[in-house]
Recover the amino acids of this structure.
């Protein structure tokens, strides 16, 4: 299929050795007219808060409603801050914390789990390590005694015997031994 089209017109050719004469354009007269119509909204005074037109978003809130909104927001902020403080105090007061580092599947009957334990020097803890299959079924578990150690943080590697191939190992919990 052949499509025939009309190319746009080209500008006229000029003589490259000759410069075109400059065109002088007279400035347009300035008119001092203010144009207003029904779509021109009045502008607020400088420094005044910008507010939508009255009634655009429902009735104007009363002073009592504004105070109620401020009190409700302040109460929500206080409750939120209290929740953050309680969670922070609980986490800070844990005597033993653990962090997973990694695991190594050594075969269908064994997995090694490496983890860090943070506790006060001289403390002894008991940690439960689980080996999980692909279906998240527990295929092995071991309780290991950690410590006492002389440092705040220590790294441990524990072997877990499994009944079938484990695909991951996790630290289920660590607690202080009394």
């Amino acid at each position: 299929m052949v499509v025939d089209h009309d190319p746009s017109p080209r500008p006229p050719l000029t003589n490259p050795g000759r410069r075109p004469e400059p065109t002088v354009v007279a400035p347009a007269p300035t008119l001092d007219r203010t144009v207003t119509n029904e779509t021109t909204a009045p502008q607020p005074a400088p420094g005044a808060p910008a507010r939508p037109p009255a009634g655009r978003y429902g009735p104007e809130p009363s002073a009592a409603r504004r105070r109620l909104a401020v009190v409700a927001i302040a109460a929500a902020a206080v409750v939120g801050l209290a929740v953050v403080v309680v969670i922070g105090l609980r986490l800070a007061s844990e005597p033993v914390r653990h962090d997973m580092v990694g695991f190594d599947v050594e075969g269908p009957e064994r997995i090694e789990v490496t983890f860090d334990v943070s506790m006060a020097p001289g403390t002894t803890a008991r940690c439960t390590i689980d080996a999980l299959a692909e279906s998240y079924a527990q295929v092995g578990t071991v309780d290991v005694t950690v410590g006492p150690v002389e440092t705040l943080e220590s790294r441990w590697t524990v072997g877990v015997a499994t009944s079938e191939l484990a695909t991951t190992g996790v630290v289920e919990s660590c607690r202080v031994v009394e």
User: Anything to note?
Assistant: The CA atoms of residues 44 and 50 lie 7 Å apart.
